[in-house]
From TrEMBL:
Protein name according to UniProt: TraR/DksA family transcriptional regulator
Zinc finger (dksA C4-type): 116-140
Domain of life: Bacteria
Basic and acidic residues composition bias: residue spans: 26-38
Region listing for Disordered, in residue ranges: 1-38
PROSITE patterns, per the entry: ZF_DKSA_2
Taxonomic placement: Bacteria, Bacillati, Actinomycetota, Actinomycetes, Kitasatosporales
Amino acid sequence: MGDVRRDGQEAQDGQDRQGGQGGQDAGREHDGLAPGEREAVATELLAESERLRLEIDAAEEAEAQLRADCALDAADAGAENVSREQLRDRSAEAQVRLDRTVAALGRLREGTFGLCTDCSRPLGRERLLAVPTAALCLACRRRREAAAGSHSRGGG
């Protein structure tokens, strides 16, 4: 067993996780990000999680306000129902994004950020910088989408 590094990952006899001895990849982990990039991604994910929480709270508050309004005529009631449904949809979409963001933050803490949650292969630096909440490599994502498409067409 090697020593545990400052970020909680285990170092093997002075080598990084990819088996290198340093050089230009020093400080990079399996996610391919330099320490400064990793910190920037973490900061971005934390800010996004807070923004999404506020968005969800605001949508829930607006929906509660709509419910609290006094009796409405049929036309107003129909418009209120549409507004409430739109707020619920927006809140649900924000919750899905929040769940993905929180999961990415968890992977950062656990040291698995940048690895596909299905096959454990690296996602790649460019993908992580573009989509920091990505959990699947492109091959696994395509495989899931194809499986979902075959199930929706009844092709089990």
